[in-house]
Amino acid sequence: MKPSPSLDLSLVDEARRALEGRIRRTPVEESGPLSEIAGASVSLKLECFQLTGSFKIRGAFFAMTRLSEAERSQGVVTCSAGNHGKAVAYVARELSIPAEIHVPRNVDEAKYGAMLALGAVVVRSATDSFDETEEVAKGEAAASGRAYLTAFDDDAILAANGGTLAAEVLEDAPEARTFLLPVGGAGLAGGFAFYAKSLLPEARIIGCQHVLSPALALSLAKGEAVVRLPPVDTTAGGVEGGIGRTGFAALKDRIDGVALLSEEQIFGAVRFMLDRHQILIEPSSAVTIAAILERRTERFTSPAVAVVSGRNVALATIRRILG
Predict the structure, then answer these.
(1) Contact status, residue 188 vs residue 307, Cβ threshold 8 Å
(2) Topology of 9-55+155-322 in CATH?
(3) Percent of the chain predicted with pLDDT > 90
(4) What pLDDT score does 57 carry?
(5) Which residues contact 110 (CB under 8 A, 6 or more apart)?
């Protein structure tokens, strides 16, 4: 794979051009109920309506279009908690690239089934740990000479997953100055924060995480990326595990607050979106909604946008959430 250029605005522009006509431009819609709770205008960037059900299609498409012909013919290896894998499987089918996807043992069944249905080879790990599963996947790629596609730890991924999304938000919600983002490996959050702060230095970036897997908060306290964390029992696999060094480098001087949410608070946010907006979202994407509902941020003094990053969730999980 071509070396990734450094993250800058031109790389985001390149990603936007590469993705034009390949993905959906998802809507930004104001939420009356959340605005009432927050005391300021709150809009939702509904990336849950994206192809493959999450923002991950952005990074997967951009990364895979940058592969050489030799790399495409050999195929790719990746590791995913679910959404990145589903996106890679979709793009691999579109571009006729063989794909092998390693997933943690406790991967969401809906995401697992979707990867298989899209024709990818899916290898289920012997562990629930994303970090340990990724080590195995990287080893397989190295041993076979295939390209490894990171889910988040690369500037091109940040530019596509976060930068292109931020560009759409800033164009569609020009008055917004506060942005709530889910943070897992930080491929979305790092790219979004970089782009938003580059154009709007006064923007406020709030990272939202699971309280039992607070890689961003721990990294900020330590002053360096905490890239490995033990697995936790959660349905929000997209915000579990360590943070990427690339994403943390983009976030560390641009983050303005971290909101930590419990599993039950995340479940409450999923129920809220169903009840008040009739939109089904996955637990990983509900952290931004939960942060508002639980008032885990300082009071908004300007219009805000909460990124709703995905909708992929198994029926059994939905039943558990609804009780």
Answers:
(1) yes
(2) Rossmann fold (3.40.50)
(3) 94
(4) 98
(5) 312, 313, 314, 315, 317
